[in-house]
Amino acid sequence: MRVFILYLNKARTDGNFNLDDLPSSGGRIDVLCRCATAALWLSHALRKDTKIIGVLNGSPNPPITITIDSNILRGVSPDERSVASWIKKALSDVGMRTRSGIVAERKSFQDVVREYSNHPIYILHEKGENIKKCALEGDDFVFILGDHIGIPRNDERFAERYARAKISLGPQSYLASSCITIINWFLDNANPT
Amino acid sequence: MRVFILYLNKARTDGNFNLDDLPSSGGRIDVLCRCATAALWLSHALRKDTKIIGVLNGSPNPPITITIDSNILRGVSPDERSVASWIKKALSDVGMRTRSGIVAERKSFQDVVREYSNHPIYILHEKGENIKKCALEGDDFVFILGDHIGIPRNDERFAERYARAKISLGPQSYLASSCITIINWFLDNANPT
User: Fold this and answer.
1) Interface ipTM
2) Is residue B120 within a helix (H) or strand (E), and if so which, with residue range?
3) Mean pLDDT, residues B163-190
4) Chain B: which residues have CB within 8 Å of chain A?
5) Angstrom distance (rounded) from CA B81 to CA A84
């Protein structure tokens, strides 16, 4: 299982945002939509055993997590608006799984980290060890990353207590969605047959 | 300069598509929007010296190219709808550069390939040489890739006459936008200092 946990500082925590203006009305919920596409989609197929968990910390009702699990996702296209429309539905009925398989729950970032604490956790960080030098073996990984604002220091410290390492993707600073694509590719090719 | 040339089989060639339904009304113009974000954006910044050229081959008026040059792009956000709204404007006035810097022109795939024929051209192809084994050095690259349908055989043959090599990204088949992200990362890290 690959799990991507994305910390979103301002993403709106109810369904009251405008699909025509995700960045502003949704508190950059577009970032989660792009990350979901990057995490879960291959060409013509969904990945198997891959999850993205967005932790939403915007108004009016933080924190809320959105979980999208590739093994149960259905009826969603990889375009931002399609993903966003299902996230909106999930947020309108917290605790109930939508027909798409997407679910919103009342959990904090720390709750989620604790939940995955018996898996190998890695924090994406510009000052971490270069991913090319990390021995990422096996098929069980949890990656934690922040949005364009970053993870608040106290939450980052909390995650560090459970993390195996901090890793970086090199000298450039990438969009969160690009980070996820790169990690997926890196893992796909880490143990070539 | 890095240039990504994306062949889009069905993308609509006038501005008459609905921003609320890019995949269907736009003939998968959402693919170009995601590819533009993958090609041009870093975190908090645009790349320098990077272009994406989408070759649109859908109705009613093919072919049309959309060129987005990171060096002149402005006022556009990385979300799909923002990119799409400027592409729509460019398509409504072919030959005129929009305020965003995005321009639509009456050119075919073969015109574009010919235009870049004095640069090192690589075709992304599942049966190509693995990118990890290619000596991609320098900072001048043109990459050709197809959408989810692929490049028609006659256009692919034409490109092969100018291409240095066909390259692959490994055993998985990725979304076009993911391919671009991976290539950008690979080049960013090909010659680490």
Assistant:
1) 0.96
2) none
3) 96
4) 19-23, 30, 34, 37-38, 41-44, 77-82, 132, 148, 169-178, 181-182, 184-185, 188-189, 192-193
5) 12
Query: What are A123's strand-pairing partners?
Result: A144, A166
Residue B183 has, within 13 A of its CA and on its CB side, a CA count of 31
Distances (CA, A) of B154 to B8, B11, B119, B161, B181: 15, 19, 21, 11, 27
Full set of structural domains in chain A with CATH: 1-193 (3.40.1280.10)
Residue type, B6: L
B105-117 residue pLDDT tens: 999 999 999 999 9
- How far apart CA A25 and CA B81 sit, in angstroms, is 13
Tokens linked to B47: 């790349």
State the residue for tokens 């069905």: B10
Torsion of the alpha carbons at A177, A179, A182 and A183, rounded to the nearest 10? -110
Alpha helices for B116-175 (secondary structure H): 153-162
- Please state the pTM of the whole predicted model: 0.97
Close Cβ partners of A180 (under 8 Å, ≥ 6 residues apart): A4, A35, A38, A39, A52, A143, A145
Residue corresponding to tokens 């880490």: A190
List the single residue in B43, B81, B182 with the smallest CB-CB distance to A181: B182
DSSP B171: S
* Three-state SS at A181: helix
What's the pLDDT tens digit per position in B133-151?
998 988 999 999 999 999 9
Q: How far is A122 from chain B (nearest CA, A)?
A: 19
The pLDDT tens digits for A57-76 are 999 999 999 999 999 999 99
* Amino acid letter, A83: V
Instruction: Give residues with Cβ within 8 angstroms of A44, minimum separation 6.
Output: B148, B173
